[in-house]
Amino acid sequence: MSEEKKVRLLIRPAHFVPNVADRFNNNGRVHEVGYGKCNFRCEFCSFGHWAVEDYPEYTLESFEKKVWELLRYSKNFRFAGGEPTLNPYLADLLRIVKIYGSQVFLETNGSRPDIIKELLDEKLVDIVGLSLKGLNREEATATANIKKSELCWENVIETMDIVSQHKDATLVVTYVACDGYFKEEDLDILGELLSPYPDVTYKINNCYDDNRGDKKRVGLDKSEIYKMVERFVERHPEYKGRTVLFREHDCCFDSSKIALF
Ligand code: SF4
Predict the structure, then answer these.
(1) CATH code of the domain covering residue 158
(2) pTM value?
(3) What domain count does the chain have?
(4) Which residue, judged by its Cα, is nearest atom 8 of ligand 1?
(5) Which residue owns the Cα nearest ligand 1 atom 7?
(6) Is the Cβ atom of 107 under 6 angstroms away from ligand 1?
(7) For residues 74 and 76, what is the distance between their CA atoms, to the nearest angstrom?
(8) I want to staple 137 with a disulfide (CB 3.0 to 4.6 A). Which of 12, 129, 153, 218 is the partner?
(9) Which atom of ligand 1 is the closest one to the Cα of 47?
């Protein structure tokens, strides 16, 4: 174990991972391991407001000690960001938690398929949660606020292909619905986009109100979006049992409020 490998991480409790389809056994307390950099610049994201330089610095040795503490509560870990695949020591950290038989949920923007493939080939990740920034290249590029569109489109499609073809991993794809941007037919467009992935969990987040950035984004009316998703599943029964709606912010804390269709 090298003392030279040091990384700033925000380790804190998370309530659960958004699997909601019984794909993460013993989905009790989850330890979130946050990494402080991202290659996207989504304007609605609060990430840029965090004092990343204040994250504690860990060596692999001190990380493993922290893992020992956390294992008393559960073996569930969520690696998130920023973008966790930018962490040069991500595989080292995952190997440590996997030594103890932990379950790993990796939350990614999907921009780095090669890294994801390596992690899956080494069986270091159980569920990949991928947030889709748009329903087409232009929308994704505008939302991610980046110049290299392949990072938020072609690479993301490649990541979905890789995860869905991997027999040991599960794919959860999230799309955020914002009032004024989101229309009911967008659910069908997303359904078409995800049709090559027969086992994907299709997850809609109703945007949690956010005043940051130039534009205020808000979610849709809770019952309106519920009915939209309900009608979508009626139109597309192939998504029954694997379509999930987070219609309000409380869903992040109380899994009983998450709707599974
Ligand atoms: S990809 Fe995620 S962490 Fe990065 S800026 Fe966008 S919302 Fe924030």
Answers:
(1) 3.20.20.70
(2) 0.92
(3) 1
(4) 45
(5) 45
(6) no
(7) 6
(8) 153
(9) 8
